[in-house]
Amino acid sequence: MVTTVRTGHGAGGSPPPPPSGDRPARRAPIGERIVGVVLVALSLLPASACHFAFTTGLPSYTERYRDYAAAEPCPAHSTAEKWEDCLRTVPLTVESTEVEKQKRGGYTAFLHGAPLGDEEVGFGDPGPLLERLRPGDRVTATVWRGDVVVIGKDGVRQSSSDEPRDDAQMVAAVSTLAGLLSALALGFGAVAVARGHRPGRWRSFGKPLLGTVVITCFAVGFLALGFGLPWWVVPIVAVSVVAYAAWLFHRRRTRREQPAR
After folding, report:
1. 142 pLDDT band (50/70/90 cuts)?
2. Bond before 164 cis per omega within 30 degrees
3. 3-class secondary structure for the chain?
4. How far, in Å, CA of 94 to CA of 103, rounded?
5. What is the pLDDT of residues 241-251, one digit of tens each?
6. For residue 11, pLDDT beyond 80
7. Considering just the CA atoms, what is the radius of gyration of the chain in Å?
8. Angle, CA of 221, 225 and 229, to the nearest 5°
9. How many CA atoms lie within 13 A of 131 on its CB side?
């Protein structure tokens, strides 16, 4: 009796696939490489915005608020000029107002009077004063460095969008968000160039990490603003939280991909 010994070849004599350790590394197709290159290129935009914000924008923003907070009323008998470091109160006349959010993208009052001439003043909301104003009304405007920062009438005052505010924490939050989005795009772009895009990697790692980045930056920014913490706390805490979350997501994904023993 002759015993036939199978050599392990499949149908047609083709050899079995090599062990996973001997398989050649998967190279990304050209289409996936292009996607990766695009992601890497796009990551430069938020990276540039983040760099500008932290090196130029935030220092200028905080310095402007400090100058405004320290400004004193202009001398009563000095000549009114359009650009002054002091706070000058001038009477202005309302020409018209726009209190519909859909128009011109915001709430606006068109004022006229010396030393400004015709002035378009923007506001963040219609109340408490803007919605009450009518053409021909006289208002008292507080002017600083050529900008109308506050208007008042009959004891009601409203700050304009040009008034410097002590909310650098939120500016830092948006700047940190831009930096983290840049890092996320750069990371996925580099992986796509080297090994190709895999939808499973985005669903299990990229998508939850993106949500964590957005939620963390704004949450830390609001908390820092509410508790009066310095703005530099925002990037330190936000980056630390996101880094820890990325480690957790990566570990969970790795465990799911490991074969059951």
Report:
1. very high
2. no
3. CCCCCCCCCCHHHCCCCCCHHHCCCCCCCHHHHHHHHHHHHHCHHHHHHHHHHHHHHHHHHHHHHHHHHHCCECCCCCCCCCCCCCEEEEEEEEEEEECCCCCCCCEEEEEEECCCEEEEEEECCCCCCHHHCCCCCEEEEEEECCEEEEEEECCEEEECCCCCCCCHHHHHHHHHHHHHHHHHHHHHHHHHHHHCCCHHHHHHHHHHHHHHHHHHHHHHHHHHHHHCCCCCHHHHHHHHHHHHHHHHHHHHHHHHHCCCC
4. 18
5. 999 998 988 78
6. no
7. 30
8. 100
9. 9
Q: Which two tokens stand for residue 6?
A: 């199978």
The residue count of the chain comes to 261
Global pTM value: 0.74
Sign for the pseudo-dihedral over CA of 168, 170, 171, 173: positive
Query: Within a 10 A sphere around the Cβ of 173, how many other Cβ atoms?
Result: 25
Contact in structure between 192 and 29 (CB atoms under 8 Å): no
Strand partners, 153: 156
Taking only the tens place, the pLDDT of each residue in 156-191 is: 999 999 999 999 999 999 999 999 999 999 988 888
CA distance 244 to 253: 14
